[in-house]
Amino acid sequence: MAQHKIAILLHDEFEMWRPPPWFVEKLRADFPQTEIACSTQKRDDQQALDGADVMIGWALPLEQLRAAKSLRWIYSITAAVDQFLYPELTSSEIALTNAGSVHGPVVAEHAIAMLLALAKRLPSAVRYQKRRKWAMEAIWKEQPRPREVRGANLVVVGLGSIGVEVAAMAAALNMHVMGVREHPERGGAQEVVGFDALDGAISKADFVVLAAPLAERTRHLIDARRLQLFKSSAFLINVSRGALVDEGALVKALRDRKIAGAALDVFEQEPLSRWSPLWKMPQVLITPHTAFLTENVWHRHYETFAANLKRYLAGQQLEGAIDLKRGY
Q: Fewer CB under 10 Å: which end of the chain, C or N?
């Protein structure tokens, strides 16, 4: 009988949240000493978890945690892990690792694409294209006008797996990058400050990218007060968690032209309600939580999980373990 059992609890309707058949087959071939139980529907989750010491998934409800007596390690297929940070799990001896190294570079590319789209007024160009209108002069007259990103001030809030990649890509575009993180001594950008300097950083920014984890201190980090600190020509980009932004306050700031615009991949409630005023705001670019999407995502998951599984089976320390008290 196998000494170790891996429970894969992923059965979302969206195929990208489900492992492809080759993923499970390769695990079985590469790790014959383990039993692999893949739940394809919620009612089979408990059977898969029974006796499992390792779990692959994106959430673990409290009732499942209570029944998972053998669980020792959770591999979250998401970069953010706030969904796991409830008291019963954070006070347990279960190790939690995330997929930050899987998603970081991909989400960072999306953030940079959003930044360039806003700077070059691409959403406006798409709207005029639909009307077959040659809108050179109209786009030039928009405020703020199309601009260079070279020399612009970018503030990256959070320098984890996503933020450090955003900072590196932006530096390659010759932007001036200031990172904001809880431990500024760890670096990660050309200039790094602590959260106590966030207000001052925002006031100087041309672009602000949110890449911080969701925790109590970061919930509504961008609220009505901080939105007043933005330059009227500045843009907000969020590729982290929707709850980092007070959406009601953002809508008001956009309507009052306190900030130039926003590019949002994540929202407080998802899917975003069809009645949200954000949909119709011309200065807002919306992507439906697609920043992580790539055809290579499960190949990247396999590399990351398999490397840590080798460490786990050898009794070694896991890479990328989350500090359950801090949430990152």
A: N
